[in-house]
Design brief:
It contains 7 helices and 11 strands. The protein is α/β, with parallel strands linked by helices and 279 residues long. Helix 2 crosses helix 3. Belongs to the class-V pyridoxal-phosphate-dependent aminotransferase family. SerC subfamily.
Amino acid sequence: DLRTLMNIPDNYHVLFLQGGASLQYSAIPFNLLDDNKKMNYLVTGFWGAGALRNAKKVGDVTEVIKPLETYNGCTDFSEWTIDKDAKYFHFCDNETVDGVEFHNFPYEELKDQLLVCDMSSNLCSRSVDWNRYGLVYAGAQKNVGPAGVTIVIVRDDLVGKQLDITPDVMNYKKHVDSPGHCYNTPCCWSIYMAGLNIEYMLKKGLDKIEEEAQTKSSMLYDYIDGTEGYYVNPVDPAYRSRINIPFRVKSDEKLEEKFVDEAKKEGLVQLKGHVSVGG
């Protein structure tokens, strides 16, 4: 159903793995690097920074943009630093914590780069041109199903070229060659529940899901912007996420605590945000 919903071509393997997207931060360089251990990493938020931190342990990383003081968008492409000899180019399409999403990613300018993308929080929210990517991965718990399963969609020509030091559980080739693409015991319940949700999305249709995400997020942004600074979203409008909308209440902690308490009374929970920003 996932292959049908997302129109994934036959020359891509779809793996349901464990360890979260965080494990893929290490698995990706292990599987894609060879004697050339050069990588490009574009960091626009909390999760991209985690991917960068782990990649540095395996090879030589070019940081595409200078570290941002605050994650509220991205610098212009003209300011990017790109190693043309790098094995791949990694970026996070939608930064969950920071609410930063790419809507006009420079695919044409990067057509000679092997793109690797973390789509943990926006996979299945819009269509994907798979010809642009070598590998896409996503922790299912953000937009597909419950925690416990990680989806890896990898082009078949990239499988089987892993470094000799790659742990078996991270080795894509081991999973691809195993019965049912399961090298070790899968997280059965999480996969089953994700399957039910994907079945529901398939009935609804990806176009409708994309339309609803745009409509709902626009309504919320319009309201926030109309409060004259009472509620504040810090993200550059060109990069505002359709999926995760962070906001503050006048940068006043007591007001924010009251907001969270009042929201709970209305059945709105888990609004305090990620632990990295005080949630």
